[in-house]
């Protein structure tokens, strides 16, 4: 059968389609490049915060501070961002609560090759901070000391909360500073096994999505390859962390369990110095800060609005004063 050559119109249409596809690919590449440059650029300082620097173990570290204490002895809350994030990414989640409750809130930056993408040395994770052996416990200790020197802080009401890699670091800080903290909150974080006993009992709240694909609820390596490569140890299951703190805090009462929406809430009481342990297991939640609005960091791709982690954490913290 004789083949008919393409008509001039058909050839022109094919050429136009090819040029359009190339232009579209170019536009997508440019868009990705712009996004990467923006991610790597120095982060803008959120309004209402002040920037501070402190030298720890010969390295300059920095943090943002939001002072809503009103000049009277106020609670101090340290908030740790997730891996690959920065201090500014957490400010919007706590600003309204800080002003409502009269808090002084410090947002430290993890360490990394640029200020916009930091990690924390939680021993078994993550990335730069872990491989560089970043002195993060010393950093947070020095930060607390400095803010206490420069602001009116109630020493009986010092708290720490963290998301993801920041939650892992929160476990480390609660163990190391158990004699100073009035409470600690871990959202989508994990332990790695082999932890030492805390220096004192610490009230603990754990919030974790059962469908978490970044830090699996059941433990093990992350299901995301690049996160798994940033680990040196597998994550322990959420239940391991719960058992660790229930034992460390000497909780003796039978836990009370209730449900709210798809959340299962376990409360362990009868603990030393009133250091109870509360656990929220969120059946449909993935890797997220529940209730967060606005733009979220890269790994927090799934919204969950059945509860607000900021509200739940502060409600828990406000009931605990160090004795």
What does this structure look like?
The N and C termini lie far apart (94 Å). The chain has 8 helices and 12 strands. Helix content is 32%, strand content 23%. β3, α2 (88-101) and β4 (104-108) form a beta-alpha-beta unit. Residues 28-41 have low confidence and may be disordered. The protein has a 10-stranded mixed beta sheet, with helices on both faces. A two-stranded antiparallel ribbon has the order 5-6. The protein is globular, with a radius of gyration of 23 Å. The protein has 323 residues and is α/β, with parallel strands linked by helices.
Compute the number of strand runs.
Answer: 12
The backbone outline, from C-alpha atoms, is globular
Oligomerization status of the protein chains: single chain
Compute the number of helices: 8
Low-confidence stretches: 28-41
Return the string of H and E elements: HEEEHEEEHHEHEEHHEEEH
Strand content: 15-25%
Radius of gyration computed on alpha carbons: 23 Å
Helix content: 25-40%
Overall pLDDT confidence:
88
The largest sheet is: 10 strands, mixed
Structural class label: alpha/beta
Order of neighbouring strands in the sheet with most strands? 1-2-4-3-7-8-9-12-11-10
Q: How far apart lie the N and C ends? A: 94 Å
């Amino acid at each position: 059968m004789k083949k008919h050559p393409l008509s001039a119109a058909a050839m022109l249409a094919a050429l136009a389609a090819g040029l359009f596809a190339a232009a579209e690919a170019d536009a997508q590449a440019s868009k990705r490049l712009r996004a990467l440059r923006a991610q790597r650029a120095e982060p803008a300082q959120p309004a209402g915060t002040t920037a501070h620097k402190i030298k720890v173990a010969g390295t300059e570290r920095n943090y943002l501070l939001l002072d809503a204490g009103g000049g009277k002895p106020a609670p101090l809350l340290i908030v740790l961002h997730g891996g690959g994030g920065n201090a500014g990414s957490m400010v919007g989640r706590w600003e309204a609560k800080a002003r409502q409750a009269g808090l002084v809130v410090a947002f430290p930056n993890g360490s990394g090759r640029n200020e916009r993408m930091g990690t924390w040395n939680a021993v078994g994770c993550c990335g730069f901070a872990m491989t560089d052996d970043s002195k993060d416990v010393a950093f947070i200790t020095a930060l607390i000391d400095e803010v206490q020197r420069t602001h009116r802080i109630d020493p009986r009401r010092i708290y720490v909360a963290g998301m993801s890699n920041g939650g892992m670091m929160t476990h480390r800080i609660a163990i190391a500073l158990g004699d100073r903290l009035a409470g600690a909150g871990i959202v989508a974080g994990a332990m790695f096994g082999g932890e030492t006993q805390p220096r004192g009992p610490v009230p603990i709240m754990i919030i974790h999505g059962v469908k978490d694909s970044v830090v699996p609820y059941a433990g093990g390596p992350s299901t995301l390859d690049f996160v798994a490569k940033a680990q040196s140890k597998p994550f322990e299951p959420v239940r391991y962390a719960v058992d660790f703190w229930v034992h460390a805090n000497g909780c003796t009462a039978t836990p009370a369990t209730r449900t709210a929406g798809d959340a299962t809430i376990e409360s362990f009481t009868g603990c030393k110095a009133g250091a109870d342990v509360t656990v929220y297991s969120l059946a449909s939640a993935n890797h997220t800060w529940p209730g967060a609005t606005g733009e979220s960091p890269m790994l927090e791709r799934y919204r969950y609005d059945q509860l607000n982690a900021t509200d739940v954490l502060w409600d828990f913290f406000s009931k605990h004063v160090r004795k």
